Amino acid sequence: MPELAYLNGKFMPIESAMVPIEDRGYQFGDAVYEVIASYEGKLFCVEEHLDRLERSMRELAFPPVSRDEVRDTLFELFKRSGFSRAGIYIQVSRGVAVRNHPFPETSTPQIVMTVREVSEVPQEYRENGISVITMTDFRWGRCDIKTVQLLPNTIAKQRAIEAGVYDTIFVTEAGVVREATSSNLFVVKNGILITHPLTENILAGITRMVVIDLCRELDLPVEERFYSTDEMFDADEAFLSGTTTEVLPIVQIDEKIIGDGKIGPIASRLSAVLQRRGLESG
Ligand code: PDD
User: Fold this and answer.
1) CA 120 to ligand 1 center in whole angstroms
2) Helical H segments across the chain, by residue range
3) Do residues 110 and 147 lie in contact, with contact meaning Cβ atoms separated by under 8 Å?
4) Digit-coded pLDDT (tens) for 130-174
5) Contact between 202 and 150 (Cβ < 8 Å)
6) Cα(45)–Cα(143) distance, integer angstroms
7) What is the 3-state secondary structure (H, E, C) of 192-226?
8) Do the beta carbons of residue 24 and residue 35 sit within 8 Å?
9) Residue 11 dihedral angles phi and psi, to the nearest 5°
């Protein structure tokens, strides 16, 4: 099955796709992106991802991009790949222009996409849970915009790998818990789920939204509010949510074992229900 790219109206092998060096995404991180996954040949939450892509572009005052064109292209790329469990990466930059800080007066947004098979979280992590570390959030003030400026996220993830754990949770100096490097975070205390509210400091995850919807259907109370590292360490359960992460239980944060150190009942239930929802989608 081919791993493919889309660039300038053409589909090609990923290795053949080249962008100009003066693309503003390359020089200024002036680009936004989405990652969409499929379950058994059906793409999950496409319109929600397109909504967020449009919002990111609007927040950065990009010239208009046709939603229909993006949608048609991503479905075509997906079809050509033939992958059942695909991960589609969509990136839109402001365009190509002579290097200069202000937005160019005119530019044509450059749309690139790739499709690969999802690189799955190892089954062992899903069954036994993961360990994570915390780190002071040193990202910019608009984490709600899904830009490709991910250096802090990559540094934080690298630090996790070097510490022998799966991921890093960003927390503020004042001890407010934000999210992980490419997933949102939920904690559970006495049967109540708690997650950071939608502000400029976290990404409005599509999976976060689906998990909250599922909780409503399952009569599980959810509080979208600020919570502290103390509350996090004291939680009965914790888990990450994300497009390819899905619901991933956490059993240790820094030195602290969460709950009894085994994956909790709510995380494991939500993980199963989310997968089923993915499989039923389309
Ligand atoms: N990351 N928070 C951050 C910082 C993210 O980068 C992501 C997604 C999420 C979860 O959002 P969603 O549920 O819509 O995937 C939360 C993508 C998958 C990535 O960077 O690869």
Assistant:
1) 15
2) 24-28, 46-59, 67-81, 123-128, 151-162, 206-217, 229-233, 265-280
3) no
4) 999 999 999 999 999 999 999 999 999 999 999 999 999 999 999
5) no
6) 21
7) EEEECCCCCCCCCCHHHHHHHHHHHHCCCCEEECC
8) no
9) -105, 140
Cβ–ligand 1 distance for 110 under 6 Å, the answer: no
Residue found under tokens 């899904």: 146
Give the model's confidence band at 281: pLDDT under 50 very low, under 70 low, under 90 confident, else very high: confident
What is the rounded CA–CA span in Å between residue 252 and residue 255? 7
Q: Which of 10, 42, 79, 146 is catalytic?
A: 146
At position 122, the amino acid (one-letter code) is P
Per-residue pLDDT reduced to its tens digit, 256-278: 999 999 999 999 999 999 999 99
* Residue type (1 letter), 39: Y
93-128 burial, b for 16+ CB within 10 Å, e for fewer? bbbbbeeeeebeeebebbbbbbbbebeebeeebbee
